[in-house]
Amino acid sequence: MSSNAVLNTALIEVYRSLLQYAGESWPWAAAGSDETETAVRQMAAEERGIVSRIFHHLDSSGLPVDLGTYPDNSALHYASLPFFLQRMVSEHADLDQSLRYYRQAVSQDQEASRLLDEAIGMVERHLARIRQLAAPAGAAA
Prior knowledge:
Blueprint: H1 3-15, H2 18-24, H3 34-59, H4 81-105, H5 110-134
């Protein structure tokens, strides 16, 4: 698989992640979850930034760019915020592992490697933050 194809797969996984979905479709939440919602929306916006950079890199190659589609997350529309956050932790941990695999696959392409290194660092930071948000109130951080 070419480095552009691998990079496009990474773009789809980040762009169609549960964090991105939450940024567009906030789950049901009790009053007082404003701080969590703000944090999630900020992380989603930051990840859209790396998606944009990857998209522009791929687009400059003249090849078509596939943006993918969201998986069916409709069952989460009425889930509680703690449940939703736990799912997000699991999904973002999987995303981190996928991006590391893709990074190895493009090791000979300096720009693709740089973009994936940036994405991995961001996903790691966001995963740590999502874990904090998902921790039960009063739990040690």
